[in-house]
Automatic annotation (TrEMBL):
InterPro entries associated with the record: Metal_Hydrolase, TatD-like
Superkingdom of this protein's organism: Bacteria
GO CC annotations on file: cytosol
Protein name per UniProt: TatD family hydrolase
Keywords: Hydrolase
Molecular function terms, GO-annotated: hydrolase activity, acting on ester bonds
């Protein structure tokens, strides 16, 4: 049984593969979007490509896209690009995989404007930030940091199972180790965790 991997950059067969612009779309589920840390000579041209690829039935989510305080792209442009992704996702009824560094409070504004679920991937912030996102209606996906961060583990204990996902992102750790740690945190079997993740996937994709 393959465990569902919410966001990854590998050849893993069951999950949401983050397709890079310019690469051939795979025959397995993928997401497509403009990463806020990447500077595109012309983001509108790049976004046109995203729009074309996003119509593929294998494309089950938009992203990763979002906001990053460290980016050389201005906040103004980042917000414009992010909003376009949310609008595209709304028109296609596909959820949005969000990359966010240091700008989480701004996400609340976009959650209000979004017709589809927003999932903050690779969450590695304070519990207070996480609670703010959950209260606003966003989902949270945990990555490899969950294995080592005690504070993240204690926050994960508080997050309702139906509002979370697990992912490896670009790390080489097996997705199994994330299921194991969450199973321990929640006192549930790996099969039960997988069951819940698949239910969550249904919730965010059957719109
Ligand atoms: Zn990623």
């Amino acid at each position: 049984m393959h465990l569902f991997n919410f966001h990854h950059h590998t050849s893993y067969p069951w999950g949401i593969y983050n397709l890079e612009l310019g690469a051939a779309p795979p025959a397995r589920p993928f997401s497509i979007g403009l990463h806020p840390m990447k500077h595109y000579a012309n983001w509108k041209d790049a976004f046109n490509e995203v729009e074309i690829l996003s119509k593929s039935p294998q494309c089950i989510a938009i992203g990763e896209c979002g906001l990053d305080r460290r980016s050389k792209v201005s906040t103004l442009v980042q917000e414009e690009v992010f909003l376009r992704h949310i609008q595209l996702a709304g028109s296609l009824k596909k959820p949005v995989v969000i990359h966010c560094v240091g700008m989480h409070a701004l996400l609340l504004k976009y959650q209000k404007q979004s017709a589809v679920p927003l999932i903050v991937h690779g969450f590695n912030n304070k519990a207070q930030t996480g609670k703010m996102l959950l209260d606003a209606g966003l989902y949270i996906s945990f990555g490899s940091n969950l294995l080592s961060s005690v504070s993240l583990q204690s926050f994960a204990k508080e997050v309702p199972m139906e509002r979370m996902f697990l992912e490896t992102d670009d790390s080489s750790i097996p997705i199994q180790s994330l299921y194991e740690i969450l199973g321990t945190i929640k006192n549930q079997s790996i099969a039960a965790v997988q069951n819940q993740m698949l239910k969550n996937l249904q919730t965010i994709t059957n719109l």
